[in-house]
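User: Okay, second chain of the day. Same drill as before: sequence in, structure tokens out.
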Amino acid sequence: MCIRDRFYNEMKHIRLIFSAILLSLVVPCGYAQTRQDSLAIAHAQWHTDTLKHGAVCMYTNIHVFDSPQQISIIKYDPKKYKTQIVQAPQMTMTSHLAKENQAEAAINGSYFNVKTGAPTTFIRLDGIVRGETTRAEAFRTDGAISTDKNKIKIHTFDSITSKKLGKKYKNILAAGPLLLKNGVRQMAPTFPENTGKATKGNAHSSDVPQGFFKRHPRAFIGITPDNQIMMEVVDGRFKKHSVGMSIDELSYLAKQLGMRDALNLDAVSYTHLTLPTICSV
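Assistant: Same drill. Structure tokens below.
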């Protein structure tokens, strides 16, 4: 997706660029959230820069969930920028795609075939379906984001709603898991010790891969109650710098940051947030 500055005839964009990730199964376990985690997030020291029409890029290094984490965010008013979903014609770096589309910022997301680059989740651009959610991706694709008429919305998504959403919105991308909906944290699977299968009775299949839901680098998008958009990345796989977050930890973070709705976009190998050079992230 992208955001364009709406005060120019040739508008600049902050584009959210959605392309998929490689699933990894070997990851450390998550930790239960505590009051100390809430306080750490609430009192985080953010390094911030502000763009011409009010978009704010920011980052922080904090100790939360009994681990070091680096969080980068760009927050903006969709009334001042245009947000677009962009599909790369071939596998490419997020930063390159952002430059090609004159985007002020970009984030990658959703899932694709790592050999062909073809999307493996539902995507519709300008009314044309460019990809369908494969059976293998269904376990984590329970949300979607639409950008029609620059109104950014996060939806629940499944085999039933996909047909309705696909007809209603010309620009929509399925991703997941859904982290927050109307302020309520969505339930991630829990895994019995020493097994690779989730317990039954939750929002996800009982045979989903365990590794995806544990700690990885993460990219996600959220909407606040006053309709501000937040694109965020949690760095990962750096033991002393930032280890990454589980899906459960990510939904907790989104809630603590004041989001109403939030959707995981990406994880593992390709998580990336491209920011303007003014932003010292």
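The chain has a mean pLDDT of 79.

User: Thanks, on to the next one.
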